[in-house]
Amino acid sequence: MSRYDLILRNGLLVCPEGVKKADVAVCDEKIVEIAGEISGSAQETIDAAGSYVFPGTTDGHVHFNDPGRTDWETITTGSSALAAGGGVAYFDMPLNCSPCTLDAKNFKAKLAVAQQDSLVDYGFWGGLTPKNLDKLEELAECGVVGFKAFSCHSGIDEFERMDDYTALVGMETLKKLGLPLMVHCENAEITKDLTALALANHKTTVRDYFAARPPITEIENVSRMISIAEQTGCKLIIAHISTAKAIELVTQARSRGVDVTCETIGHYLILTDDDVERMGTVAKCSPPIRDTENQTKMWAKLFNSEIAFVSSDHSPCDPKLKDGEFLKVWGGISACQTTLQGLLTHAYHDRKFPLGNIAKLTSQNVNEIFGIQGKGKIALGCDGDFALVDLNKEFTLQADDLFYLHKVSPYVGDRFRGTVTQTILRGTTVFKDGKIVSKPIGKHLRPNL
Ligand SMILES: NC(=O)N[C@H]1NC(=O)NC1=O
Ligand SMILES: [Zn+2]
Ligand SMILES: [Zn+2]
Protein backbone atom coordinates (compact mmCIF):
# COMPACT_ATOMS: atom_id res chain seq x y z
CA MET A 1 0.00 0.00 0.00
CA SER A 2 1.31 3.40 -0.89
CA ARG A 3 1.18 5.97 1.79
CA TYR A 4 1.00 8.85 -0.64
CA ASP A 5 -0.42 9.60 -4.04
CA LEU A 6 2.65 11.53 -5.16
CA ILE A 7 6.14 12.31 -3.92
CA LEU A 8 8.29 14.91 -5.65
CA ARG A 9 11.84 14.20 -4.59
CA ASN A 10 14.91 16.43 -4.33
CA GLY A 11 13.42 19.52 -5.92
CA LEU A 12 14.36 23.06 -4.96
CA LEU A 13 11.04 24.17 -3.51
CA VAL A 14 10.16 27.85 -3.87
CA CYS A 15 8.31 28.23 -0.55
CA PRO A 16 7.03 31.41 1.16
CA GLU A 17 9.93 31.21 3.62
CA GLY A 18 12.54 30.78 0.88
CA VAL A 19 14.01 28.24 -1.52
CA LYS A 20 14.82 24.90 0.07
CA LYS A 21 15.84 21.48 -1.16
CA ALA A 22 13.23 19.03 0.10
CA ASP A 23 10.78 16.29 -0.79
CA VAL A 24 7.09 17.06 -0.92
CA ALA A 25 4.26 14.54 -0.66
CA VAL A 26 0.66 14.85 -1.87
CA CYS A 27 -2.33 12.85 -0.66
CA ASP A 28 -5.93 13.42 -1.78
CA GLU A 29 -4.81 16.45 -3.82
CA LYS A 30 -3.21 18.24 -0.83
CA ILE A 31 0.36 18.72 0.34
CA VAL A 32 0.67 16.52 3.42
CA GLU A 33 4.40 16.47 4.09
CA ILE A 34 7.47 18.56 3.31
CA ALA A 35 10.75 17.17 4.59
CA GLY A 36 14.42 16.74 3.72
CA GLU A 37 13.75 13.13 2.94
CA ILE A 38 10.29 11.56 2.98
CA SER A 39 10.32 7.85 3.68
CA GLY A 40 7.75 5.48 2.29
CA SER A 41 6.27 4.99 -1.11
CA ALA A 42 3.75 6.65 -3.36
CA GLN A 43 1.63 5.75 -6.35
CA GLU A 44 3.84 8.08 -8.34
CA THR A 45 7.32 9.39 -7.61
CA ILE A 46 8.88 12.21 -9.59
CA ASP A 47 12.60 12.86 -9.43
CA ALA A 48 12.78 16.65 -9.39
CA ALA A 49 16.53 16.84 -8.78
CA GLY A 50 17.90 19.95 -10.43
CA SER A 51 14.44 21.50 -10.91
CA TYR A 52 13.03 24.50 -9.14
CA VAL A 53 9.53 23.72 -7.97
CA PHE A 54 7.26 26.77 -8.03
CA PRO A 55 3.70 26.83 -6.78
CA GLY A 56 1.62 26.46 -9.95
CA THR A 57 0.59 29.93 -11.05
CA THR A 58 -2.84 31.55 -10.83
CA ASP A 59 -3.47 34.06 -13.61
CA GLY A 60 -5.85 36.65 -12.18
CA HIS A 61 -6.79 38.17 -15.53
CA VAL A 62 -7.55 36.31 -18.77
CA HIS A 63 -10.14 36.56 -21.54
CA PHE A 64 -10.84 33.06 -22.85
CA ASN A 65 -13.94 34.21 -24.76
CA ASP A 66 -15.94 31.06 -24.10
CA PRO A 67 -18.87 30.80 -24.67
CA GLY A 68 -19.72 33.01 -27.63
CA ARG A 69 -16.43 34.05 -29.16
CA THR A 70 -14.81 30.66 -29.51
CA ASP A 71 -13.34 31.71 -32.83
CA TRP A 72 -11.01 33.95 -30.74
CA GLU A 73 -10.05 31.50 -27.97
CA THR A 74 -11.70 28.71 -26.01
CA ILE A 75 -11.50 27.43 -22.46
CA THR A 76 -9.88 24.26 -23.84
CA THR A 77 -7.08 26.08 -25.69
CA GLY A 78 -6.66 28.87 -23.15
CA SER A 79 -6.42 26.58 -20.14
CA SER A 80 -4.00 24.31 -22.02
CA ALA A 81 -1.76 27.26 -22.84
CA LEU A 82 -1.86 28.33 -19.23
CA ALA A 83 -0.81 24.87 -18.05
CA ALA A 84 2.04 24.84 -20.57
CA GLY A 85 3.33 27.97 -18.85
CA GLY A 86 3.12 26.53 -15.32
CA GLY A 87 -0.46 27.62 -14.62
CA VAL A 88 -2.90 25.71 -12.44
CA ALA A 89 -5.69 28.29 -12.23
CA TYR A 90 -7.10 31.42 -13.83
CA PHE A 91 -9.81 34.00 -13.25
CA ASP A 92 -11.71 34.61 -16.46
CA MET A 93 -13.00 38.08 -17.28
CA PRO A 94 -16.73 38.80 -17.84
CA LEU A 95 -15.90 39.85 -21.42
CA ASN A 96 -15.10 39.05 -24.30
CA CYS A 97 -17.26 35.98 -24.00
CA SER A 98 -20.79 36.42 -25.28
CA PRO A 99 -23.09 36.89 -23.54
CA CYS A 100 -20.94 38.83 -21.09
CA THR A 101 -21.01 37.63 -17.47
CA LEU A 102 -23.49 40.23 -16.19
CA ASP A 103 -26.03 38.03 -14.40
CA ALA A 104 -26.40 34.58 -12.81
CA LYS A 105 -27.85 33.01 -15.93
CA ASN A 106 -24.82 33.93 -18.04
CA PHE A 107 -22.47 32.98 -15.22
CA LYS A 108 -23.99 29.51 -15.17
CA ALA A 109 -23.64 29.16 -18.94
CA LYS A 110 -19.91 29.86 -18.64
CA LEU A 111 -19.55 27.60 -15.61
CA ALA A 112 -21.06 24.73 -17.62
CA VAL A 113 -18.43 25.14 -20.34
CA ALA A 114 -15.57 25.29 -17.84
CA GLN A 115 -16.82 22.25 -15.91
CA GLN A 116 -16.60 20.29 -19.10
CA ASP A 117 -13.53 21.77 -20.79
CA SER A 118 -11.15 23.41 -18.34
CA LEU A 119 -7.84 21.63 -17.94
CA VAL A 120 -7.02 23.66 -14.81
CA ASP A 121 -8.91 25.35 -11.97
CA TYR A 122 -10.94 28.48 -12.64
CA GLY A 123 -12.67 31.40 -11.01
CA PHE A 124 -14.88 33.92 -12.75
CA TRP A 125 -15.15 37.67 -12.62
CA GLY A 126 -18.59 39.23 -12.79
CA GLY A 127 -19.05 42.42 -14.77
CA LEU A 128 -20.23 45.78 -13.45
CA THR A 129 -21.93 48.08 -15.97
CA PRO A 130 -24.70 50.72 -15.70
CA LYS A 131 -27.20 48.02 -16.76
CA ASN A 132 -26.60 45.38 -14.07
CA LEU A 133 -26.44 47.16 -10.72
CA ASP A 134 -29.35 44.95 -9.63
CA LYS A 135 -27.49 41.75 -10.55
CA LEU A 136 -24.38 42.11 -8.38
CA GLU A 137 -25.84 40.18 -5.49
CA GLU A 138 -26.88 37.18 -7.59
CA LEU A 139 -23.43 37.11 -9.17
CA ALA A 140 -21.86 37.20 -5.70
CA GLU A 141 -24.00 34.21 -4.77
CA CYS A 142 -22.71 32.38 -7.83
CA GLY A 143 -19.19 32.72 -6.39
CA VAL A 144 -17.51 35.36 -8.55
CA VAL A 145 -14.02 36.35 -7.35
CA GLY A 146 -14.84 40.03 -7.83
CA PHE A 147 -16.25 42.47 -10.37
CA LYS A 148 -14.62 44.08 -13.39
CA ALA A 149 -15.52 47.42 -14.89
CA PHE A 150 -14.17 49.69 -17.60
CA SER A 151 -13.88 53.44 -17.17
CA CYS A 152 -13.50 53.82 -20.94
CA HIS A 153 -15.06 51.97 -23.87
CA SER A 154 -14.33 48.26 -23.40
CA GLY A 155 -13.97 47.32 -27.02
CA ILE A 156 -17.17 45.26 -26.73
CA ASP A 157 -20.38 47.28 -27.16
CA GLU A 158 -22.50 44.93 -25.00
CA PHE A 159 -20.15 45.56 -22.04
CA GLU A 160 -20.87 49.21 -21.31
CA ARG A 161 -18.42 51.49 -19.62
CA MET A 162 -18.92 52.39 -15.95
CA ASP A 163 -19.93 56.04 -15.51
CA ASP A 164 -19.14 57.77 -12.22
CA TYR A 165 -22.65 57.21 -10.84
CA THR A 166 -22.32 53.47 -11.48
CA ALA A 167 -18.86 53.52 -9.89
CA LEU A 168 -20.24 55.10 -6.72
CA VAL A 169 -23.34 52.93 -6.37
CA GLY A 170 -21.47 49.84 -7.54
CA MET A 171 -18.69 50.31 -4.99
CA GLU A 172 -21.23 50.91 -2.21
CA THR A 173 -22.90 47.61 -3.12
CA LEU A 174 -19.64 45.67 -3.40
CA LYS A 175 -18.51 46.98 -0.04
CA LYS A 176 -21.63 45.35 1.43
CA LEU A 177 -21.06 42.14 -0.53
CA GLY A 178 -17.41 42.05 0.56
CA LEU A 179 -16.05 41.63 -2.96
CA PRO A 180 -13.42 43.67 -4.81
CA LEU A 181 -13.87 45.85 -7.87
CA MET A 182 -11.18 45.77 -10.54
CA VAL A 183 -11.21 48.76 -12.87
CA HIS A 184 -9.67 49.25 -16.27
CA CYS A 185 -8.60 52.84 -15.67
CA GLU A 186 -8.41 55.13 -18.67
CA ASN A 187 -10.30 58.43 -18.81
CA ALA A 188 -13.26 57.90 -21.16
CA GLU A 189 -13.61 61.42 -22.50
CA ILE A 190 -9.96 62.10 -23.20
CA THR A 191 -9.40 58.75 -24.92
CA LYS A 192 -12.59 59.08 -26.94
CA ASP A 193 -11.94 62.64 -28.10
CA LEU A 194 -8.25 62.17 -28.83
CA THR A 195 -9.07 59.02 -30.80
CA ALA A 196 -11.81 60.79 -32.77
CA LEU A 197 -9.47 63.67 -33.56
CA ALA A 198 -6.72 61.32 -34.69
CA LEU A 199 -9.16 59.45 -36.95
CA ALA A 200 -10.51 62.69 -38.41
CA ASN A 201 -6.95 63.69 -39.29
CA HIS A 202 -6.10 60.22 -40.65
CA LYS A 203 -3.46 59.82 -37.98
CA THR A 204 -3.55 56.07 -37.39
CA THR A 205 0.05 54.95 -36.81
CA VAL A 206 1.36 53.31 -33.69
CA ARG A 207 2.70 56.65 -32.42
CA ASP A 208 -0.68 58.26 -33.08
CA TYR A 209 -2.27 55.52 -30.97
CA PHE A 210 0.11 56.22 -28.08
CA ALA A 211 -0.66 59.94 -28.37
CA ALA A 212 -4.40 59.22 -28.19
CA ARG A 213 -4.00 57.37 -24.87
CA PRO A 214 -1.35 59.35 -22.97
CA PRO A 215 -0.31 58.49 -19.38
CA ILE A 216 -2.56 61.20 -17.90
CA THR A 217 -5.64 59.22 -18.98
CA GLU A 218 -4.61 56.42 -16.61
CA ILE A 219 -3.28 58.66 -13.85
CA GLU A 220 -6.44 60.81 -13.75
CA ASN A 221 -8.76 57.82 -13.65
CA VAL A 222 -6.77 55.91 -11.03
CA SER A 223 -6.98 58.94 -8.81
CA ARG A 224 -10.74 59.24 -9.35
CA MET A 225 -11.36 55.55 -8.61
CA ILE A 226 -9.24 55.80 -5.46
CA SER A 227 -11.41 58.72 -4.29
CA ILE A 228 -14.58 56.67 -4.72
CA ALA A 229 -13.02 53.63 -3.04
CA GLU A 230 -11.93 55.81 -0.14
CA GLN A 231 -15.44 57.20 0.20
CA THR A 232 -17.21 53.83 0.00
CA GLY A 233 -14.65 51.54 1.67
CA CYS A 234 -14.84 49.17 -1.32
CA LYS A 235 -11.79 47.04 -2.04
CA LEU A 236 -10.35 48.37 -5.31
CA ILE A 237 -7.85 46.73 -7.64
CA ILE A 238 -6.39 48.76 -10.49
CA ALA A 239 -6.22 46.53 -13.57
CA HIS A 240 -3.05 46.24 -15.67
CA ILE A 241 -1.40 49.37 -14.30
CA SER A 242 0.97 50.81 -16.89
CA THR A 243 2.51 53.96 -15.40
CA ALA A 244 4.85 54.43 -12.44
CA LYS A 245 2.97 57.60 -11.52
CA ALA A 246 -0.33 55.71 -11.11
CA ILE A 247 1.41 53.09 -8.96
CA GLU A 248 2.65 55.94 -6.76
CA LEU A 249 -0.97 57.08 -6.29
CA VAL A 250 -1.95 53.55 -5.23
CA THR A 251 0.90 53.35 -2.74
CA GLN A 252 0.06 56.74 -1.25
CA ALA A 253 -3.61 55.82 -0.90
CA ARG A 254 -2.74 52.51 0.76
CA SER A 255 -0.54 54.29 3.24
CA ARG A 256 -3.51 56.41 4.36
CA GLY A 257 -5.65 53.31 4.74
CA VAL A 258 -7.50 52.99 1.44
CA ASP A 259 -8.09 49.35 0.45
CA VAL A 260 -6.49 49.58 -3.00
CA THR A 261 -3.92 47.43 -4.79
CA CYS A 262 -2.74 47.12 -8.35
CA GLU A 263 -2.04 44.43 -10.88
CA THR A 264 0.38 44.75 -13.74
CA ILE A 265 0.95 42.63 -16.83
CA GLY A 266 4.13 41.03 -18.11
CA HIS A 267 4.18 43.17 -21.25
CA TYR A 268 4.40 46.45 -19.34
CA LEU A 269 7.57 45.11 -17.69
CA ILE A 270 9.10 43.39 -20.71
CA LEU A 271 8.16 45.40 -23.82
CA THR A 272 8.56 49.11 -24.58
CA ASP A 273 6.93 51.55 -26.99
CA ASP A 274 9.84 50.99 -29.40
CA ASP A 275 9.19 47.23 -29.36
CA VAL A 276 5.53 47.84 -30.19
CA GLU A 277 6.55 50.07 -33.09
CA ARG A 278 8.79 47.29 -34.42
CA MET A 279 6.31 44.46 -33.83
CA GLY A 280 3.13 46.13 -35.03
CA THR A 281 -0.46 45.33 -34.14
CA VAL A 282 0.32 42.01 -32.42
CA ALA A 283 1.59 44.15 -29.52
CA LYS A 284 -1.34 46.59 -29.43
CA CYS A 285 -3.10 46.75 -26.09
CA SER A 286 -4.74 49.31 -23.88
CA PRO A 287 -3.48 51.08 -21.94
CA PRO A 288 -0.58 51.19 -24.38
CA ILE A 289 2.90 49.95 -23.56
CA ARG A 290 4.98 52.94 -22.42
CA ASP A 291 8.58 54.12 -22.76
CA THR A 292 11.78 52.78 -21.19
CA GLU A 293 11.99 55.54 -18.60
CA ASN A 294 8.56 54.62 -17.22
CA GLN A 295 9.37 50.92 -17.37
CA THR A 296 12.56 51.37 -15.32
CA LYS A 297 10.49 53.08 -12.64
CA MET A 298 7.90 50.30 -12.73
CA TRP A 299 10.61 47.71 -12.09
CA ALA A 300 11.73 49.71 -9.07
CA LYS A 301 8.16 49.64 -7.79
CA LEU A 302 7.93 45.89 -8.39
CA PHE A 303 11.10 45.45 -6.33
CA ASN A 304 9.54 47.65 -3.67
CA SER A 305 6.42 45.40 -3.44
CA GLU A 306 4.16 48.18 -4.70
CA ILE A 307 2.50 45.85 -7.24
CA ALA A 308 0.37 43.05 -5.79
CA PHE A 309 0.34 40.56 -8.65
CA VAL A 310 1.37 40.03 -12.27
CA SER A 311 -1.18 38.61 -14.73
CA SER A 312 -1.26 38.06 -18.48
CA ASP A 313 -4.38 40.00 -19.60
CA HIS A 314 -4.50 37.31 -22.27
CA SER A 315 -6.84 38.99 -24.75
CA PRO A 316 -6.71 37.24 -28.11
CA CYS A 317 -8.90 37.83 -31.15
CA ASP A 318 -9.46 36.51 -34.63
CA PRO A 319 -6.16 37.44 -36.36
CA LYS A 320 -8.13 39.21 -39.11
CA LEU A 321 -9.00 41.85 -36.50
CA LYS A 322 -5.28 42.69 -36.15
CA ASP A 323 -4.97 43.35 -39.85
CA GLY A 324 -5.17 47.06 -40.63
CA GLU A 325 -4.19 50.51 -39.43
CA PHE A 326 -2.78 50.46 -35.90
CA LEU A 327 -5.26 52.87 -34.36
CA LYS A 328 -8.24 50.91 -35.72
CA VAL A 329 -7.38 47.27 -35.00
CA TRP A 330 -8.27 45.18 -31.91
CA GLY A 331 -6.32 45.96 -28.76
CA GLY A 332 -5.29 42.86 -26.85
CA ILE A 333 -2.24 40.65 -26.49
CA SER A 334 -2.00 36.85 -26.26
CA ALA A 335 0.31 36.06 -23.37
CA CYS A 336 -1.04 33.56 -20.83
CA GLN A 337 1.52 30.87 -21.74
CA THR A 338 4.59 33.00 -21.07
CA THR A 339 4.10 35.05 -17.89
CA LEU A 340 6.18 32.89 -15.55
CA GLN A 341 8.90 32.18 -18.10
CA GLY A 342 9.00 35.88 -19.00
CA LEU A 343 9.53 36.79 -15.35
CA LEU A 344 12.21 34.11 -14.92
CA THR A 345 14.02 35.62 -17.90
CA HIS A 346 13.57 39.34 -17.25
CA ALA A 347 13.04 39.54 -13.51
CA TYR A 348 15.26 36.77 -12.14
CA HIS A 349 18.05 36.39 -14.72
CA ASP A 350 18.25 39.99 -15.96
CA ARG A 351 17.55 41.83 -12.71
CA LYS A 352 18.22 39.37 -9.85
CA PHE A 353 14.62 39.64 -8.67
CA PRO A 354 14.15 36.95 -5.99
CA LEU A 355 12.46 33.71 -7.05
CA GLY A 356 10.29 33.76 -3.92
CA ASN A 357 8.87 37.11 -4.97
CA ILE A 358 8.09 35.77 -8.45
CA ALA A 359 6.10 32.98 -6.75
CA LYS A 360 4.22 35.54 -4.67
CA LEU A 361 3.41 37.77 -7.66
CA THR A 362 2.17 34.91 -9.84
CA SER A 363 0.48 32.74 -7.25
CA GLN A 364 0.36 33.37 -3.53
CA ASN A 365 -0.71 37.02 -3.58
CA VAL A 366 -3.44 36.42 -6.15
CA ASN A 367 -5.01 33.63 -4.09
CA GLU A 368 -4.73 35.63 -0.87
CA ILE A 369 -6.24 38.81 -2.29
CA PHE A 370 -9.24 36.92 -3.67
CA GLY A 371 -9.73 34.67 -0.66
CA ILE A 372 -9.03 31.39 -2.46
CA GLN A 373 -8.07 29.25 0.47
CA GLY A 374 -5.53 26.43 0.35
CA LYS A 375 -4.03 27.47 -2.97
CA GLY A 376 -1.03 29.48 -4.09
CA LYS A 377 1.89 28.24 -2.07
CA ILE A 378 3.95 25.18 -1.29
CA ALA A 379 2.86 24.62 2.28
CA LEU A 380 1.17 21.91 4.31
CA GLY A 381 -2.55 21.64 3.64
CA CYS A 382 -2.40 23.51 0.34
CA ASP A 383 -3.28 22.02 -3.04
CA GLY A 384 -0.51 19.94 -4.60
CA ASP A 385 0.00 22.48 -7.40
CA PHE A 386 3.49 22.69 -8.87
CA ALA A 387 5.34 24.13 -11.84
CA LEU A 388 8.65 22.36 -12.38
CA VAL A 389 11.20 24.74 -13.85
CA ASP A 390 14.60 24.19 -15.40
CA LEU A 391 15.94 27.60 -14.46
CA ASN A 392 18.81 27.77 -16.91
CA LYS A 393 17.27 25.98 -19.86
CA GLU A 394 16.87 28.44 -22.71
CA PHE A 395 14.43 28.34 -25.60
CA THR A 396 13.32 30.50 -28.48
CA LEU A 397 9.53 30.70 -28.53
CA GLN A 398 8.10 29.27 -31.75
CA ALA A 399 4.53 29.83 -32.91
CA ASP A 400 4.08 26.05 -32.85
CA ASP A 401 4.90 25.98 -29.12
CA LEU A 402 1.75 27.98 -28.39
CA PHE A 403 -1.42 26.23 -27.32
CA TYR A 404 -3.54 29.28 -28.15
CA LEU A 405 -6.28 28.83 -30.73
CA HIS A 406 -4.38 31.36 -32.85
CA LYS A 407 -0.64 30.86 -32.64
CA VAL A 408 0.28 34.52 -32.37
CA SER A 409 2.08 36.42 -29.64
CA PRO A 410 4.49 39.34 -29.52
CA TYR A 411 6.96 36.99 -27.85
CA VAL A 412 7.31 34.59 -30.80
CA GLY A 413 11.00 34.59 -31.76
CA ASP A 414 12.10 35.81 -28.34
CA ARG A 415 14.72 34.05 -26.28
CA PHE A 416 13.63 32.85 -22.83
CA ARG A 417 15.81 31.56 -20.02
CA GLY A 418 13.87 29.37 -17.60
CA THR A 419 11.65 26.58 -18.96
CA VAL A 420 8.53 25.03 -17.46
CA THR A 421 8.99 21.27 -17.92
CA GLN A 422 5.99 19.95 -16.00
CA THR A 423 2.80 21.32 -14.42
CA ILE A 424 0.97 19.46 -11.67
CA LEU A 425 -2.58 20.34 -10.59
CA ARG A 426 -3.73 18.93 -7.24
CA GLY A 427 -1.29 16.03 -7.61
CA THR A 428 -2.10 15.24 -11.26
CA THR A 429 0.35 16.06 -14.06
CA VAL A 430 -1.49 18.11 -16.67
CA PHE A 431 1.50 19.21 -18.79
CA LYS A 432 4.83 17.52 -19.38
CA ASP A 433 7.70 18.03 -21.84
CA GLY A 434 5.72 20.13 -24.27
CA LYS A 435 2.50 18.12 -24.18
CA ILE A 436 -0.86 18.25 -22.44
CA VAL A 437 -1.15 14.87 -20.71
CA SER A 438 -4.46 15.05 -18.85
CA LYS A 439 -8.14 15.32 -19.61
CA PRO A 440 -9.90 18.43 -18.28
CA ILE A 441 -9.93 18.24 -14.48
CA GLY A 442 -10.39 21.90 -13.52
CA LYS A 443 -12.57 22.81 -10.54
CA HIS A 444 -14.47 25.99 -9.79
CA LEU A 445 -12.72 28.23 -7.23
CA ARG A 446 -14.91 30.39 -5.01
CA PRO A 447 -13.69 33.10 -2.68
CA ASN A 448 -13.92 32.53 1.04
CA LEU A 449 -13.37 35.99 2.45
N1 LIG B 1 -11.90 43.87 -24.12
C1 LIG B 1 -10.60 43.57 -23.83
O1 LIG B 1 -10.20 42.41 -23.82
N2 LIG B 1 -9.79 44.58 -23.60
C2 LIG B 1 -8.45 44.36 -23.20
N3 LIG B 1 -7.53 44.43 -24.26
C3 LIG B 1 -6.57 45.30 -23.96
O2 LIG B 1 -5.59 45.54 -24.67
N4 LIG B 1 -6.83 45.92 -22.83
C4 LIG B 1 -7.96 45.45 -22.34
O3 LIG B 1 -8.53 45.84 -21.36
ZN1 LIG C 1 -8.54 46.21 -19.36
ZN1 LIG D 1 -8.31 42.40 -19.67
3D structure, described in words:
This protein is an alpha/beta fold. The chain has two domains: 4-53 and 382-393 and 415-434, Urease, subunit C, domain 1 (Roll), CATH 2.30.40; 58-369, Metal-dependent hydrolases (TIM Barrel, Alpha-Beta Barrel). The protein has helices at 75-84, 104-117, 136-142, 164-177, 188-200, 206-212, 215-232, 244-255, 266-270, 273-279, 292-303, 339-351, 355-369, and strands at 4-15, 18-27, 30-35, 42-47, 52-55, 57-62, 87-92, 121-127, 146-150, 181-184, 236-238, 260-265, 309-311, 386-396, 415-425, 428-432, 435-436. Strands 1, 2, 3, 4, 5, 14, 15, 16 and 17 form a nine-stranded mixed β-sheet that branches. Helix 7 runs parallel beside helix 8. The longest helix is centred in the middle third of the chain and has 18 residues, at 215-232. Bound molecules: 1-[(4S)-2,5-dioxoimidazolidin-4-yl]urea (3AL) and zinc ion (2 copies). One zinc ion is lined by residues 61, 63, 93, 313, 315. 1-[(4S)-2,5-dioxoimidazolidin-4-yl]urea binds at residues 63, 95-96, 154-156, 184, 285-286, 315, 331-332. Zn(2+) 2 binds at residues 148, 184, 240. Zn(2+) 1 binds at residues 61, 63, 148, 313. Pathway: Nitrogen metabolism; (S)-allantoin degradation; allantoate from (S)-allantoin: step 1/1. It comes from Desulfosporosinus youngiae DSM 17734.
Secondary-structure blueprint of this entry?
Layout lengths: L3 E12 L2 E10 L2 E6 L6 E6 L4 E4 L1 E6 L12 H10 L2 E6 L11 H14 L3 E7 L8 H7 L3 E5 L13 H14 L3 E4 L3 H13 L5 H7 L2 H18 L3 E3 L5 H12 L4 E6 H5 L2 H7 L12 H12 L5 E3 L27 H13 L3 H15 L16 E11 L18 E11 L2 E5 L2 E2 L13
Parallel strand pairs: 1-4, 1-5, 6-7, 7-8, 8-9, 9-10, 10-11, 11-12, 12-13
Antiparallel strand pairs: 1-2, 2-3, 5-14, 14-15, 15-16, 16-17
Helix pairs in contact: 4-7, 5-6, 7-8
The structure holds 1-[(4S)-2,5-dioxoimidazolidin-4-yl]urea and zinc ion (2 copies).
1-[(4S)-2,5-dioxoimidazolidin-4-yl]urea (3AL) binds next to loops.
Cofactor: Zn(2+)
GO cellular component, one term: cytoplasm
Keywords: Hydrolase, Metal-binding, Purine metabolism, Zinc
